[in-house]
Structures are given as structure tokens and as C-alpha cells.
Design brief:
InterPro entries: AAA+_ATPase (IPR003593), ABC_transp_ATP-bind (IPR050319), ABC_transporter-like_ATP-bd (IPR003439), ABC_transporter-like_CS (IPR017871), Oligopep_ABC_C (IPR013563), P-loop_NTPase (IPR027417)
Keywords: ATP-binding, Nucleotide-binding, Transport
CATH superfamily of one domain: P-loop containing nucleotide triphosphate hydrolases
Protein name: ABC transporter domain-containing protein
CATH architecture of one domain: 3-Layer(aba) Sandwich
Largest sheet: 6 strands, mixed
Strand order of the largest sheet: 7-8-9-4-10-11
Family: Belongs to the ABC transporter superfamily.
CATH class of one domain: Alpha Beta
Shape: globular
Number of helices: 8
Low-confidence stretches: 1-15, 269-276
Radius of gyration: 19 Å
Length: 276
């Protein structure tokens, strides 16, 4: 998070390659009250676009505002300034009301797979709830489980009987069941071991694209983002400081913060990113 008074100048966000954006953020800000008085802006003047059938990686260090931005996109936080538009509809904070039907096309996969599933209900019931949000869809409980490489009899079990990686795959299946146009992954691989991280990230990309959805994949792991994203947005202290194609960000980063993030990636066999 960054102080309102100390926020650096924002970068200009690049537009998707072609066509009208599916999701558009215009000068969005979100602020929180401090215990001792005053306010901090966790997100400060973010403008960003997501194209159709596009995977956008959102990267930055912990505390830079990535998760707050995800919550704003999903209507879980109320913006202090700016606007968010999804498929022509304004995104408003949920409050105590039921989510508007036109906004059900935004679905989120949360970071913690141990907290995102209801431990008192069978997996089938939780997937059926999501399927009911998309009555015209073609998914079934069985086909969803198959899509995330889980056996059909998983539907009769409770979440406590699954590993972290399996629970996250179930969370992905539940998000897909609702027929989203935008899938938001808020650090969805952060709690998984290194062996599973790349696999789950690639699975999310493939399932989103195959189902016709776009995806925002939030992570501090640039190596994984490089593998799955079409474009990358770099966030520092509540602002987007650089946006570009994955190839451009990787091979010709413009902002010093982007260069710093890439330089911090561990080298393999003595080789790694060298800024400039």
C-alpha cells in the first residue's frame, strides 16, 4: 500500500491488441482507514483493459495492491474513485445484495484452497450451486471434475479429504461451472508446492481459453506468468507502472521496477535475466 500523498506517477496502460475490451478499469482507486487516523490508498489511479479471450498477468511484490485490485474487479471492494465496466455493465460493490445477473460472468479463484470450499458440503453440491448460475451451459459435475483431472467419485467426498492442489482444482472447476467470461485468479498457486504451481497455472489458462473466457492471473511468480500470459501488467505501490506483451516485458522492460523484478528471478545454470 502507498500513502495518497506519496504515490508516484502512474503509467499509461496499453489497450488489448484488437476489439472492444471485455473489462475496463478507468482511474480506479481504493483506500482504507488507518487505525491512528488518515487513509491509505492500496490502489491508486489504475487504468487497465482486458480483451476477449486474453490472459493478462498482473505481477508485483506482496503488498503492492494486486489482491485489492482483484476484489475491486469482482465487486468485493468499493472503489473510492474511478469506474469498472464489464461487458458494457458497471461493476458495483456487492454489499448485502445478491450479485447482479449481468456480473455473474466474473468469477474468482482465491489464494487459499483450504478456505474457499465449504467443509460441510459434498463437492457435488458445491459444483451444482455454481452450475445453477449458468443453466444454459454444457458442463456437468462429472465433466468439470474430468476437466481438472479428478475422478468422478470425487463428487461424493468432502473437501477435507483432498490435498491442497486437488482443492484448488475443485475451486477452478466451481468457477468454470458458472460460465464466466472473466476468470480472476488471485495468487491461486501461492500456497501450492513448486511442482504443482506451473501445472495449475497452465490448467487455468487452458480451461479458460477453451471455454471462451478471458483471465486475469495474479502472481508474484514472473516465471509462471511468462508461461501463460499474453500481456503483463506490472504493479508497484498501488499503481500500474508498465503494461505490455509478455515478450516485450521480458525482453525489453522499460520501467526500473520491472527490471528489478526480472533481475530477482533465480538464475538457472548461471543464466538469467540481465536488465539492459
Amino acid at each position: 500500500m502507498t500513502s495518497i500523498d506519496q504515490a508516484p506517477a502512474a503509467a499509461t496502460a496499453h489497450s488489448p491488441a484488437s476489439g472492444a475490451p471485455l473489462l475496463e478499469l478507468d482511474s480506479v482507486a481504493c483506500e482504507y482507514k488507518l487505525d491512528g487516523g488518515g487513509r491509505f490508498r492500496a490502489v491508486n489511479g489504475v487504468s487497465l483493459q482486458l480483451g476477449r479471450s486474453e490472459v493478462l498477468g498482473l505481477v508485483g511484490e506482496s503488498g503492492c495492491g494486486k489482491s485489492t485490485l482483484a476484489k475491486l474487479i469482482c465487486g468485493l471492494e468499493k472503489p473510492a474513485d474511478g469506474s469498472i465496466t464489464f461487458d458494457g455493465h458497471p461493476v458495483r460493490a456487492l454489499g448485502l445484495k445478491k450479485r447482479a445477473k449481468e456480473l455473474l460472468g466474473i468469477q474468482m479463484v482465491f489464494q487459499n484452497p483450504y478456505a474457499s470450499l465449504n467443509p460441510r458440503r459434498r463437492i457435488r453440491d458445491q459444483l451444482d450451486d455454481a452450475l445453477a448460475l449458468n443453466p444454459d451451459g454444457t458442463w456437468t459435475v462429472e465433466s468439470l471434475l474430468e476437466a481438472v483431472d479428478l475422478p468422478a467419485d470425487s463428487a461424493q467426498r468432502y473437501s477435507h479429504s483432498f490435498s491442497g492442489g486437488q482443492r484448488q482444482r475443485i475451486a477452478i472447476a466451481r468457477a468454470l461451472a458458472a460460465g464466466p467470461k472473466v476468470l480472476v485468479g488471485d495468487e491461486p498457486i501461492a500456497s501450492l508446492d513448486a511442482f504443482l504451481q506451473a501445472r495449475i497455472a497452465r490448467m487455468m489458462r487452458d480451461l479458460a481459453i477453451d471455454s471462451g473466457a478471458s483471465m486475469i492471473f495474479i502472481s508474484h511468480d514472473l516465471s509462471v506468468v511468462r508461461d501463460i500470459a499474453d500481456r503483463v501488467a506490472v504493479m508497484e505501490a498501488g499503481r500500474i507502472v508498465e503494461v505490455g506483451s509478455t515478450e516485450q516485458i521480458w525482453n525489453d522492460p522499460n520501467h526500473p521496477y520491472t527490471q528489478k523484478l526480472l533481475a530477482a528471478i533465480p538464475k538457472v545454470d548461471g543464466k538469467g535475466f540481465i536488465p539492459g
